[in-house]
């Protein structure tokens, strides 16, 4: 890990594929049960003065992130494996190096393929709001579309 004497880290090397120096690989939302088989590593944060955070998420085979929405936006770039995502009301198949924009208040959930993990970079504001999980009416509205109903995991 490289830093300057006057500031935060300016360079992070990969210590092994898809693991960067200086940031722990942590189980994501370990206690809340709204996801399956997800880890997160924070790569940059507010200390860099950009107002953004860059994180790397890895979803194990057959795993999924939380179905949620919030005010802040996301920019997601898959860099490993295969998977799909719900973005607002569309199911999109993810290819390596695609750019996925999740708008504010848009429902979203990322899923790995059943036989392969999915790794992606995710950029968000450093100062962001807490996620909102779907209630009964939200789930009913989402499930009106059979493709979305078949995709989502809660």
**What proportion strand?**
35-45%
- Cα-atom radius of gyration: 16 Å
Strand adjacency order, main sheet = 5-6-7-13-8-11
Helix content range: under 10%
Instruction: Specify the overall morphology.
Output: globular
Largest sheet descriptor: 6 strands, antiparallel
The H-level CATH homologous superfamily, spelled out, is Jelly Rolls
Helices and strands: which structural class? mainly beta
Strand tally, please? 13
Distance between the termini: 38 Å
- The arrangement of helices and strands along the chain is EEEEEEEEEEEEEHH
> What count of domains describes the coordinates?
1
List low-pLDDT spans.
none
CATH topology heading: Jelly Rolls
- CATH architect. name: Sandwich
| Chain-averaged pLDDT | 89
CATH class descriptor: Mainly Beta
| Count of individual helical segments | 2
Keywords:
154 residues, mainly beta, Jelly Rolls, six-stranded antiparallel sheet, three-stranded antiparallel sheet, 8% helix
Describe this structure in words.
The chain has 2 helices and 13 strands; from the N terminus they run E-E-E-E-E-E-E-E-E-E-E-E-E-H-H. The strands form 4 sheets. A 6-stranded antiparallel beta sheet has the order 5-6-7-13-8-11, with no helix packed on it. The mean pLDDT is 89. The chain has helices at 136-142, 146-151; strands spanning 2-3, 9-11, 14-16, 19-20, 26-27, 36-44, 52-64, 74-81, 83-87, 90-94, 100-102, 108-112, 118-125. 8% of the residues lie in helices and 44% in strands. It has one domain: Jelly Rolls, CATH 2.60.120.10. The chain has 154 residues and is mostly beta strands.
């Amino acid at each position: 890990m490289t830093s300057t004497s006057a500031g935060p880290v300016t360079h992070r090397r990969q210590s092994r594929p898809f693991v960067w120096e200086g940031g722990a690989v942590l189980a994501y939302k370990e206690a809340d049960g709204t996801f399956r088989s997800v880890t997160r590593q924070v790569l940059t944060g507010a200390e860099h003065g950009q107002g953004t955070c860059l994180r790397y998420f890895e979803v194990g085979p057959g795993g999924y992130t939380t179905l949620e929405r919030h005010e802040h936006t996301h920019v997601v770039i898959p860099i490993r494996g295969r998977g799909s995502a719900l973005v607002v009301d569309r199911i999109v198949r993810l290819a390596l190096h695609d750019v996925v924009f999740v708008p504010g208040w848009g429902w979203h959930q990322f899923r790995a393929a059943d036989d392969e993990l999915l790794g992606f970079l995710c950029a968000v504001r450093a100062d962001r709001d807490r996620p909102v999980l779907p209630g009964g009416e939200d789930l009913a509205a989402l499930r009106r579309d059979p493709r979305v109903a078949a995709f989502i995991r809660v």
